[in-house]
Amino acid sequence: MQIALKKFAPKHVEDWAPMLSDLLQEVTQAKIEVAGESFTLADIPQEKRLNELEFDFNVPVFNPSELSTLEQIDSRINVKYYESWEGIMNGKMDMFFEHNGKYYILDWKSNFLGDSLSYYQKEVLSEAMSENNYHLQYLIYTVAAKKYLESRLAGFNYELHFGGVIYLFVRGVRAGANSGVFTCRPPLEKIEKLERMLSMDVVG
């Protein structure tokens, strides 16, 4: 951390180092509960992590309006464009890691939702996820992760091996609690539906 601060913010090392140290402690000790599993990031050794896992895939002619069929009451999807698309989609997962034989996607979010922890509870986070279209983001990430694992893990089974997605809204994350933590594991049926829509082959 000190090395990074000296490189990117040399004038603020003394002021920012204590705050970043505190933030790191809160984040690594926060309670993560997803699909029946419970752990902290402190439980994940460095060799089990891939930071900034990038992926690319071809998208044939595709109508974005189809994405609205993935929407549910608690996970709205905002489709901004209705003209057909085609080309290459590029994305980057902040962290992809394995824990107890299951694989997870983690995304860091610095959104300011309010000035107290009450703004970072489950109900508020769900609304923030919808407002920022993060539900669509993690569905695309999950399809990419599924293809990645299918190509590298013999006998990959989504239900057995994919743990879920984790969004950490770091301003509200606290050690020993689950404030600021949004998790879910998208149903396989929804992921396969999106996969059929995009007819993609991951190449990254």
Task: Describe the fold and architecture.
The structure is a single chain. This protein is of the alpha+beta class and 204 residues long. It folds into 2 domains: 30 residues, no CATH class; 167 residues, Alpha-Beta Complex (Lambda Exonuclease, Chain A). A 5-stranded mixed sheet has the order 3-4-5-6-7. It starts with a helix and ends in a 6-residue tail after the last helix. The relative contact order is 0.19. The C terminus is likely disordered.
Span of the ends, CA to CA: 29 Å
- Which CATH class of the largest domain is shown? Alpha Beta
The outline comes out as globular
**Average pLDDT reading:** 84
Helix and strand pattern: HHEEEEEHHHEEH
Number of domains: 2
Q: Would you tell me which CATH topology of the largest domain applies?
A: Lambda Exonuclease, Chain A
Radius of gyration from CA coordinates: 18 Å
Determine the strand fraction and express it as a percent band.
25-35%
How many DSSP E strands?
7
CATH architecture descriptor of the largest domain: Alpha-Beta Complex
Q: From the helix content, strand content and strand pairing, which structural class follows?
A: alpha+beta
